[in-house]
Amino acid sequence: MVDRDKEWEFHLRSLSSTGRDSNYATDPASDPSLLNSVKRLHELCKTEKSEELIARVYPHLNKIFQRCVASISQSRTSNGLLLLAILQFFLDFGDVVLHDADPSLRTFFRSCLSREFADPVVAEASLEFLSSNKGKLLKSFPTLLPQFFPLMLKLIAWNGEKLENLFLRVFSGLISPGSFIPLFPSLVDLPILVVALEKVERSSGSLVGSSIASIQKSAAPEMLLALMDEAYTGSTIGDGGADSESEDSTPIAVADPLFLDILKDENDGLAERHWTSPAMATALQAVINAPLSKRLKEALNMAPKLLDSYFTLAVHDANDSLICALIPLIMARYSTLFPDKIFSYEVQKRLLEFMLAAFHRSPHFIALLKKPIVDRLGEAYDNSAKTELALQLCWAIGEYGGGGGSHKDAARELFESLELLLYENLSSSRLGLGKAAHVSGSSSFRKSSQSRLLCFVVTAIAKLATYHRELLPRARVSLAKVARSRISDARVWKRAQDYLGLMSEPAICLSVLGPSNPSTEVMQKYPGTVNWSEGHKKMIAHVPFYILGGQEGPPSHDFSFLDILPRE
């Protein structure tokens, strides 16, 4: 006990002397013994559980915290570890000394972590602190982490995969109703954030100890001007010949806040990002054409994993209104990604899986989102990514009946969009029929994609008309035009012929193209309709195989639906 009292007094005097010592008064973090004293006093307070001892320590730590924050812009010493140790004391004993830790935590993020996120030691310690205190932070300060998610993404983007597991432990705390939507494009653009940070480092030196926020507000932001020049405008004031300076030093006019948004530290809502600019696409392609940095490669690997976590949390925690608001953003970003083939494939796969899962869980989203869906169908010709998105949207429209039987107006509008897409593609297919034997490789690929799109559109029209039978006459007209077209790809017009045949048998048509759980009214109106949700209980002797394979005559054997439907 005597030894413990001596140790206590020693460390307490150490805190007091820091304020009196002229060498450390204005820069407490430069005292090499201070951090150890703070940690040891914290341990003794936890062990003794004495409110008197806690009350004696608190004023010293509070003063040191304030002095560190005040001197951080002039300090040459890292303040991160010391401030984290003091914050831990505030969190553990704030109730005892009546200290609200929220302003202190926000000050740490704004004044310290914004300057030291690139320091690997401070970054790891910060994640450890947030992980160990995650429950307390989410309960007492639920808006803290969501507000600073851009800064946390800068931390993981710069420090890479070595901190990935730690970051994933904290990641769920970044999501709240206010950050859910803005967080999505920030995750998708993680590689572009790395490009921006590396450009800052090349232009202004080490990121450790300098606040990018202050660089953004500088009176002479040449670095950011060059950054926006390279990554957005694609041109410089000096453009015009051999006298132009290098890309790192040429000043340009500030015309767009694009990269200011990427480099921000706090969440201030969803900002528009003009990735569709031809100059932006050119600049990003230039990054791809050069050797990728290790940090950028790691960001390309991490972003899909972070999206996995994001979508998993969205499925379990986000309400329908947030998910419905997210889907148009997913559609918009599907074709505007960092131009790396593997990265684009991995991200697009996840975007489609989440979007289709959302439609499966809430089919009425299709009716609510008919306007952005129609817009995406109209862009089906622009590039291969937009074509694939249109294919999947066509499938969803048909599979879920344009939102369900109660959304007839929305279904009609979606049907009209499918008709337009069908006729436009049918017309262009006829134009290319005579040249089918002489197409080049790229033209052949384009025609194959067009045929695939036509197949999806034809199926969606047939399914939508099966759900909403008032659309059947128009569907028959559309399918008949395709069946008579005899375009170069026989799969398209043969599929249209099959669907026309199905439509003459309502029960079979409903069984094949209709909902998996038909209503009782439908079952009574069209006897013989198969309820596929009960398929594993039925033994069906005569399934018309000609529907599935174009074959005629009776089936060659009997089988159970259990053979093709998985057990629940």
UniProtKB/TrEMBL annotation:
Residue ranges constituting the AP-5 complex subunit zeta-1 ARM repeats domain according to the UniProt record: 30-154
Domain of life per record: Eukaryota
AP-5 complex subunit zeta-1 C-terminal TPR domain segment(s): 280-519
Protein name as it appears in the record: AP-5 complex subunit zeta-1
UniProt source species: Sesamum alatum
